[in-house]
């Protein structure tokens, strides 16, 4: 990126001066902030291509700035810098939405390499936003995320959308297959016409032909007038066949003939209708297995699978979760006039570890539920539904060594790891820890004493690697 705007947030003047010199030598514009509060305000007000953010600062530290920026919709790449770095700190920063993590003293080469990669990502984001602003009609969903899988998905959509190629979208339930289909249609030459959607799984077998091809008056009981089908309505536009594998083999055969000829008759009619339709199909099933087991026609598969696109499951792109929570939060605030909800770091960690079997649909429902229950409040781990809290507990359980076979020893190992992590996250505050894990304070004191866990440990090291 020949011209770029960079914000440096660091309480050390010498570090800011050194970075400014490096970046200005590259022809980049540099802004500075000497503390977290000032830096957060500048990030929210500005439009920076890259932010360098120190972790250890007095007052509002870098991790707090990062979380606040992501919650408030700032999606600029952030490179965290620290003179006291360790693996846990780096992992936490990346989970919270950082692009990269580098240690002090800063290496000129490492800094420029990291900055170059981050600015390339920023350039791609800007191009995507500009493209969407030109081609996306108001109300079309946006594909949220910056993970490699989502970046690749957007690249595939940009490649195939301007063509007339048919597309087969695969992915689990709730991943956003229809969102991907709408993005393809919106960026195509057919965008001015309608994208007609058909949920093949929701239409009864006896009605699917009428739904797809239309019917003439008197074709069956209740057909008191002629009706256009989805193919006819999609003429010159796009037909989206969702859950394509849920059609019977008989209907698949008819669909195949129409797809090949772009010609059909309404149910109960003899007149042929010719259409010009681009087809996008989607399924949550393994079509290769469906073909092997005789439930899906091989010829239909090869007709539809001109350009395959896979939408990744949410658990495969967990780094996108904070950004997506921010997006759905903005929708709740803007569309329902609700007060902002603030999720603490432990909550974001738990949500990032959760498997999300319902994918993006489940995440959106979760955000809506949290806003209904806790609008205008700070949400900690104790306020989450049990299934989301369980992710944090499983993480602690994973620390029990494989070689431990005695149940009592395994439980003791788990309890010790769980309490040490909990005390660190509570910053050594026994009352806060007791409330978070649901134990009486006196019982908790005894447990800590049993495992030789000192309160000062939690104050010295706060779970983010900070000493």
Summarize the structure.
This protein has 20 helices and 16 strands.
Describe this structure as you would to a colleague.
The protein is α/β, with parallel strands linked by helices. The protein has 4 domains: 5-127, Rossmann fold; 148-310, Rossmann fold (3-Layer(aba) Sandwich), CATH 3.40.50.300; 314-382, Helicase, Ruva Protein, domain 3 (Orthogonal Bundle); 399-467, Arc Repressor Mutant, subunit A (Orthogonal Bundle). Helices cover 48% and strands 13% of the residues. It has helices at residues 13-25, 36-45, 62-71, 87-95, 108-135, 148-160, 177-186, 208-213, 230-233, 249-261, 287-292, 298-304, 321-336, 345-353, 359-374, 386-397, 407-425, 430-437, 441-450, 455-460; strands at 5-9, 29-33, 50-54, 78-82, 100-103, 167-170, 195-199, 214-215, 227-228, 238-242, 263-265, 272-274, 278-283, 307-310, 342-343, 378-379. The strands form 5 sheets. It has a 5-stranded parallel β-sheet with strand order 2-1-3-4-5, with helices on both faces. A 5-stranded parallel β-sheet has the order 7-10-13-6-14. The longest helix is centred in the first third of the chain and has 28 residues, at 108-135. It is globular. It starts with a strand and ends in a 7-residue tail after the last helix. The model is unreliable at 132-138 and 460-467 (pLDDT under 50).
